[in-house]
Amino acid sequence: MTRPPAFDHPPRPLVQRLGAILWPSFFSAGVATMVCFAHIDPLALRDLTFPGLEIGREAGYTIGFFLFWMATAASSLFTWVLLRPASRFNQPSSNQPRSSQLRSNQPRSNQTPGG
């Protein structure tokens, strides 16, 4: 008895996939930035890390936000990669012969090789 093929959702549009990754990471980066800079002054952080650079408080907030956004977007992207349906990747490719094609290409026992 054969199983019916598993239902596979159609691929989503690129905009929807990017939105599903970037929007939650944007929101998380905003929250992480507020929590981080509620406790740490960007100027004190600059003095610890890059004392020779003239980075203002606003630039410190901006750099921190984009660093948090990159980290949370990487996390969202990794989650998206892990949640993709396996059926999209476990199908036989067109360049690999299926078992029925392998059987038809093998010589029959009553034929001699080469003729």
Descriptive notes:
With 115 residues, the chain is mainly alpha-helical. It has a domain at 28-83. Helix content is 59%, strand content 0%. It is built from 4 helices and no strands. The chain has helices at residues 14-39, 42-49, 57-83, 99-105. Helix 1 crosses helix 3 (57-83). The longest helix is centred in the middle third of the chain and has 27 residues, at 57-83. The chain is elongated, with a radius of gyration of 27 Å. The model has no long low-confidence stretch (mean pLDDT 82).
Structure keywords:
4 helices; mainly alpha; 115 residues
Which regions are unreliable across 5 or more consecutive residues at pLDDT < 50?
none
Shape: elongated
Q: H/E element string?
A: HHHH
User: Fraction of residues in helices?
Assistant: 55-70%
How far apart the termini lie comes to 39 Å
Number of strands: 0
Work out the strand percent: under 5%
* Biggest sheet features: none
Give the assembly state of these chains. single chain
- Structural category is mainly alpha
Mean pLDDT: 82
- By DSSP (H or I, 4+ residues per run), the number of helices equals 4
Q: Write down the Rg.
A: 27 Å
What's this, in brief?
With 115 residues, this protein is mostly helical. The chain has helices at residues 14-39, 42-49, 57-83, 99-105.
Task: Describe the secondary-structure layout.
Elements: H1 14-39, H2 42-49, H3 57-83, H4 99-105
Helix pairs in contact: 1-3, 2-3
